[in-house]
Design a protein that fits this description.
Bound molecules: pantoate
Number of helices: 9
Radius of gyration: 19 Å
Helix content: 25-40%
Distance between the termini: 36 Å
CATH class of the largest domain: Alpha Beta
Strand content: 15-25%
Number of strands: 9
CATH architecture of the largest domain: 3-Layer(aba) Sandwich
Number of domains: 2
CATH topology of the largest domain: Rossmann fold
Length: about 280
């Protein structure tokens, strides 16, 4: 696996591949890889003839009060794991490479970014859309794979690609979970042993919502009350949001009568966890 730190070199290699008729599949990450990322990388290997991972903890998507400085990092291990999967290039630019002196251009996606994480983290999606655009310009992928754990991020990227006529196929990948149901996340390492059982309430409450919908419950208020009660029971969890939304517009719905996103963000101690599922059929 080749390690590329420089934007110009990444572009040169991508252009050469394209000229040779290779198909480039890309997985953007912030590193500290877990099994979820590895399955995105495996999917990328199957999608293209060349696969690229980027590892870049993007300062632009963290508010000053958030965990940019303490975000877990282990580049050596990430490179080993990516190489084992058969990834062709690891693109690991520095912040100076990505945001050189004088940088002042951002990509802002509209309504789909306003609810859920966009409401709690107002600069988050601007940071994500901007860095993903820049990464696409460097890696020049034919296809890019994003996890569905960040469902709103996936919808935002799809919207951006469509709105800006970007020539990249966006592929969503199902959430990868630990054996106990906890959605995999680099931030799970923040959880203490005492917090771990509390964190499991997210996936358990999604399961409860699924049972309610299967039993005929359609009322969003009733479903969200049951979900919130399940998460709050026993204390130790603070709900940032629990919402039922249209899977394309990410606007709240009152009635579940078709594929509907149930999205959760919950603080367990100092860790903000997100999880989701689609109720009422496939999106
Ligand atoms: O999902 C992530 O890890 C990040 O938001 C992404 C897409 C790599 C952009 O920094």
């Amino acid at each position: 696996m080749r390690i590329v730190e420089n934007v110009a070199e990444m572009r040169r290699l991508a252009e050469a591949w394209r000229a040779e008729g290779e198909k480039i599949a890309f997985v953007p990450t912030m590193g500290f890889l877990h099994e979820g990322h590895l399955s995105l990388l495996r999917t990328a290997r199957g999608l293209g003839t060349k696969s690229v991972i980027s590892i870049f903890v993007n300062p632009a998507q963290f508010a000053p009060t958030e965990d940019f400085a303490s975000y877990p990092r282990d580049l050596r291990r990430d490179l080993d794991l990516s190489a084992k999967i058969g990834t062709d290039i690891a693109f690991t630019p520095s912040a100076e490479q990505m945001y050189p002196e004088g940088f002042q251009t951002c990509v802002e996606v509209g309504r789909v970014t306003k609810n859920l994480c966009g409401a709690s983290r107002p600069i988050f999606f601007r940071g994500v859309a901007t860095v993903v655009t820049k990464l696409f310009n460097a890696v020049k992928p034919h296809a890019a794979v994003f996890g569905q754990k960040d469902f709103q991020q996936l919808v935002t990227i799809r919207r951006m690609v469509k709105d800006l006529n970007m020539d990249v196929e966006i592929v969503g990948h199902p959430i990868v979970r630990e054996e106990d149901g906890l959605a995999m996340s680099s931030r799970n390492t923040y959880l203490t042993p005492d917090e771990r059982p509390i964190a499991l309430r997210l996936s358990r409450s999604l399961e409860l919502a699924r049972q309610l919908v299967n039993a005929g419950q359609k009322d969003a208020g009733a479903i969200l009350k049951a979900v919130s009660d399940r998460i709050s029971e026993g204390g130790g969890a603070v709900i940032d949001y629990a919402r039922l939304c249209n899977t394309e517009t990410i606007e709240d719905v009152e009635i579940v009568d078709g594929p509907t996103l149930l999205a959760l963000a919950v603080w367990v101690g100092k860790t903000r966890l997100i999880d989701n599922c689609v109720l009422g059929g496939e999106p």
